[in-house]
Amino acid sequence: MKKWNVLWLMFLACTGQAQQIELSPRSKQSEKWAKTITESELKDHLYTYASDAFEGRETGTKGQKIAVEYLKAHYKSLNIAPAQANGDYEQDIELVLKKLPKGKLTINGQSMENGSGIMAYAAFEFSNTPVVYVGYGVNTPQHNDYQGVDVRGKIVLAKAGAPMLPALADGSTNDWAKQSEGLERKQKAAFEQGAVGFIYWDEAAFARLKRRFDYMKQNDSGRMSIKALESQASAMVYVDQATALMLHPSIVESAEATVLGSVEAGIKSEDLPIDSENVVAFIPGSEFPEQYVVISSHLDHVGVLADGSVNNGADDDGSGSVALLEIAEAFKLASDAGQGPRRSVVFLHVTGEEKGLLGSQYYTDVAPVFPLNKTIANLNIDMIGRIDPERKGDRNYVYLIGSDKLSTELHELSEAVNKKFMGIELDYTYNDENDPNRFYYRSDHYNFAKNNIPIIFYFNGTHEDYHKPSDTPDKINYDLLTNRTRLVFHTAWEVANRDKAIVADKAQ
Ligand SMILES: [Zn+2]
CB of 134 within 8 A of CB of 257? Predict the structure, then answer.
């Protein structure tokens, strides 16, 4: 497939049939500014940014703050403005490191530690609180397990699955039986009825979650999340069959609501607040300042190992971070020479990517600095300095992911710009929806894509040093890093300078 594409492009080139899409007249100017993105400047930046002094840039740590200072200093020195109205480059984000809570649940005088027979991910503290069994815990107009049952101030016990329901008008029958959707609905129903806690017996989920739970418990690790998005209804505990039977001896066969005894629970949360920040700078557009092109990369990485070795993250995502600095500089130089972008260009360095795309999620879901419905594209750079050892073909390549998912125009202009200026082999292997790696969902662009904002994800693939202390700046292919950075610049330039904003013709 790929080969065929290359041949076809060569055929088109030979027969003089140019690309279908016409580039903007302003595209003539971009080459001059792309040349300001140089191998030596990228290298200088990266040897600092991925040095031991930055301590692996783990979210919330001193190393991450050093990274933020470095990025800020660059924008300040170039006189590129902070994006936020308050004049700060940093967008402050309150995160929570949710460690596994510790403590016991007691049923009829028998106590169980969190992790044996029960699993709670958040605090669950009750003293002699009555438990009500509600069967499947389904609550629809056609079937209501809460009929005639008062669960106010009590803990609800429900089991997985759903009763045979007459087909529901909204087609929701199946959702109640599904593992995660069903749980979400049942939990919501219980808390809406006034319950104060939720005990859930789902043997399959228990088994599935147990291994990860044990691993987290052993390592005293936790999961980071955005404080503003934490839900209140977290007083929930999973139980296995033995515990479920202790609570209700007929739970397997019966779905009849019953008032049971009471439980004692003292499972205490071990949450740690974490302060982190995105860095956001921008160059306002000269003609359409209220349309935004966001270029992003993540500023964080995975920190220091227990033995003291530093995960320098030269490729992940030092390469994208320094590429963004150079792209910003190129736009600024053009702007100072009277060739600034017609649309606003936003330089977004996000934090918490390695913890679950948290910085980009904060930007899109909690506090977009600029309106998402005026954000016309996101070009995201995550790992562009290395070569995938598994890949065959020209070393001057880059994997593109997502370019054709939401906007035909974005994909076509990306191809045309590459053909005109760079001639890099664009590899779409990972763009396949069925690719098991699911890279489309695994970096920050996804938070834009889920809002129907067209994206391109630039990526070199993984390699033997991925997420290891051996991801160091000496292993970067600086010529390729330069080519790929220039490609992103040319593409951003075109998106920012076209007569009309690109259209998300495939938006859902
Ligand atoms: Zn990364």
Answer: yes
